[in-house]
Amino acid sequence: MTLPPWERPPFTTPDTWRRFTAKVIRTSTCWLWTGALSDGYGMFHDASHQLLDSASSTVRVSRWIWSAYNGPIRASHVILHDCDTPSCCRYEPTVQHLIDGTQSANLQMAADRDRITNGARLGRADLRGQHRQSVAIRTALLTAVRDGEQDPDRLAEILADVIARGDPFSTQGRLF
Q: How far apart are CA 164 and CA 168, in angstroms?
């Protein structure tokens, strides 16, 4: 399976788009950020900050790519990761990985998926925490690409394996 070439979004420059895409590994499921991370979320610096909705020129990649395609995000909104992978930056109108929404909707989605942690209670949240999960994903994918892996389906399998290693219920047998 080959992925179509990327077309530059309307709200960015060719140079900034090249810098951005150079730090993304596209699997057949998620598009993973391999650059800087903060709390597990990818961070991108855009000095022109023509599309940014804040005074800072460094933003989460999910906010940056959403803005690159749609323009500024409302100050009260966040970008939700429907795939539950903080380092994912897949944006396509037909694939719902990133969703514009409120923090309340984000927390409700996390609660519905049992991903809220509270003290000793982990729920379905990654055992490593989202930052260490993102670092593990980045390391595994960069290693695979350096070793010559280019197949998006195989890269998606590597991603799924890394995510599974943090599953708090991985050792629990199925009842049915």
A: 9
Domain count, the chain: 1
Model-level pTM?
0.83
66: which 2 tokens? 């959403």
In a domain, 84, yes or no: yes
> Using one digit for the tens of pLDDT, what is the confidence trace for 132-147?
989 999 999 999 999 9
Contact 87, 65 (CB under 8 A): no
Residue 78 in any domain: the answer is: yes
Please give the torsion angle defined by the CA atoms of residues 66, 69, 75 and 80, in that order, rounded to the nearest 10 degrees. -20
Domain that holds residue 22: 14-164
One-letter identity of residue 69? Y
Asked if the structure places residue 139 within a domain, the reply is yes
Over residues 15-31, the pLDDT tens digits come to 999 999 999 999 999 99
